[in-house]
Every structure is written in C-alpha cells, then in structure tokens.
Amino acid sequence: MSGVLLRLAWTAAVAAQAVLAPVPAAAAPDPQRPVSQLLTDLQRLYRQVEQATETYNATAGQLKRQQAEVARLDGELARARLALQDSRMDAGRLARQQYQNSSDLSPYVRLLLGRDPQHALDEGHVIGRLARERAKTVASLTGTEKKRDALARAARKALDTRLTLADKQKKQRDDVTAKLTDVERLLTSLTPEQLGAVARLEQTGVADAQRKLTTSGALGDDARPASDEGDRAVAYAMDQLGKPYQWGAEGPKSYDCSGLTSQAWDHAGTPIPRTSQEQWARLKRIPLRDLRPGDLVVYYPEATHVAMYVGNGKVVQAPRPGEKVEVSPLASYPVLGAVRPDASPAQAPATEAR
Questions:
Q1: Beta bridge partner(s), residue 338
Q2: Nearest Cα to 12, choosing from 180, 247, 176?
Q3: Range 218-340: architecture per CATH
Q4: Where are the extended beta strands (E) located within the chain?
Q5: CATH match for 1-9+32-215 among 3.30.450, 1.20.1740, 1.10.260, 1.10.287
C-alpha cells in the first residue's frame, strides 16, 4: 500500500494521538460520490484541519508570552511590596522621632534663639539635611505605593488576558478535534477500492502539478547552494524523517508543518515565527526561481501550510494528520510562495510568487 493510501486509511489513530474531549457526532458523510468529489472533500477537510491547527498554534504562542508576562509582573509586584514595607518602616521611624521631640523646643525655634551665630548656621545645615531626608522618606513612600498599585492593576489585567487566551485556546482545540473527527468519519465510510482510487487520483494530480511547475521554468536551475544556516536547518529537518505528524506539536517526537520548520531553523541558530502564517508575513519573500535549500515554501492562499525546500524540486515536510515527516514534490499542495529565514535585511522584498 502506498504512502498516500496509508494516510487515507488513517482512522482512529488521529483521535488517539491528541488526548482531547470527544465531540458530538455529525451526520455520516455520503460515500456514494465520484472519486474526484471524494478527493475534493478530503482535501477540503484536511485544509480545514490545518487552518484550525495554525490558529490554535498562534493562540498557544500568545498564551506562552502572556504567561511569561504574568510571571514578570508578579515578580515586580512582589519586589514592590517589599520596597513598600521598607518605606513604611522608614516612615514609621520618622513619625516616632517627631513624636519623641514633640515636648522639646522645635529645632527651628532653637535656631532663632541661639546665641552663637556660627553654631546656629551649622545647625541650620543639619536641619536642612534632616528636612530633605524626611521629604525623601515621604516621597519614597508615596511613590512606592503608587508603583505597587499600578503593578497590581497591570498584574490583574495580565491575568485576565491569560485566562481569556486559555479559554480561546480550549475552544480552538475543540474545533481542531471536531474537524479531525470529520476526516476520520469520511475515511472510515470508504471501501478499500474507493480509498485506492482516491489515492491514485491524488498522486496523479500532484505529478501533473509538479510537471507543470518544472516545465514552466518557475523553479530556476536549482544551482544555488544553501547558506551555512540553511544546511543546518535542512539537516535537522531530514533527521526527523519518519516521525508522525501531530497537530500543535513541535518535536522532538512529533511535529506539525510549522512546528518542523520553526524548530529546524531554531536549531540552525536563526529563530523564526512559530506558525506558517507568521512565517509568510514576517520573513523575506523570494521568487520560486531563487529557491535554495533551507528556504520555506508556503501553501494555500491563507498560508496555512509550510514545508522546507531541500533541492531538486523537493521539500521535506510534516504533511497532515495520519502521515509522517517525509520528502515530497514541491507541488504537493497549491503553492502560495516562498520565504528565506536567513535573508539579509538589506535585501529588497521580492514580489509574491504563486
């Protein structure tokens, strides 16, 4: 059985790889459709899964950053409370000193009644210094209280944001699970003959798309060597061959599409955004004819899938649920364009390649 057919025969294993709450059953799909329609339905469902996965990944990244912000603010708030405690102790000492001197003549009155002008002048300097220290103590207490209150408000707001993101992530997780269940339901409704026919039709479509891409000259002469970072990224990605696709995963045992590409470039020493959509939006775009190993190929108009170019018209990728990291034709999915993670900032942006 071919690799494509194996992935089409995937069933309950997908649900088992992510320990999630079950979703309500939907109406069973009608398998009595032309093979071309069955393939279209499967591709649509897989695409929806990947869109939902990348949305989930983006929220996961936001949640991770927000958790770090909550921890940072909690630390600052704890330090501010300690500083406030110190300021209050200083203020308390000041109050006690004022109380203890309340029955004596004020230092200012003693200054006015002093017989020795020089002594009076010296004492005036002391009085001025004490006054400044008292003013500083009061200002410190006031400022520390304001900082404590501001940090407390910021910490509460950050915590509320984290809780909101966590709730959003849960809903997105359930959305992915529901879409995976739709794929599973359609696959289990098909006969072995239908699965085989769908697999052959998909293989034919990929071969035709790859041939058109190659004969059109869009890929150039493929003579560009990888950069040192690109070599390291490709080596890392190739080392992951055979590991299963799992949505939301970024290694080391399993990956989704952007989890593989982001981890490969991170290990190459050039961190890049986590999701395929962020990679498309934030990295330097290049024409397909300028591809070199290590560059990323982005797919679909919404930039919901990504793979790494390895040369000779091939990419290494974590394709979709039920599959494993593999080397595939570049045209396995509809190409949106390409980006270069280690492009020089001085390079001018390339026009979008489709």
A1: 286, 297
A2: 180
A3: Alpha-Beta Complex (3.90)
A4: 284-286, 296-299, 305-311, 314-317, 326-329, 335-340
A5: 1.10.287
Specify the 3-state DSSP secondary structure of 21.
coil
DSSP assignment, residue 342? T
Strand 314-317 to 326-329 pairing: antiparallel
- The CA–CA distances, whole Å, from 250 to 18, 61, 244, 333 equal 14, 12, 11, 21
**Residues facing residue 210 across a β-bridge:** none
Q: Omega of the bond prior to 287 within 30 degrees of 0, cis?
A: no
Q: How far apart are CA 107 and CA 125, in angstroms?
A: 11
Average pLDDT over all residues of the chain: 76
Distances (CA, A) of 105 to 101, 102, 109, 110: 8, 8, 6, 6
Give ranges for CATH 3.90.1720.10 in the chain: 218-340
CA distances, 255 to each of 18, 234, 292, 333 (Å): 12, 15, 23, 18
Three-state SS at 25: coil
For the stretch 96-138, pLDDT in tens is 655 555 544 455 555 545 555 555 555 555 555 555 655 566 5
Q: Which two tokens stand for residue 163?
A: 């809780």
d(CA 98, CA 90): 13
Instruction: Find where tokens 């006969």 sit.
Output: 191
Tokens at 5, concatenated = 């057919």
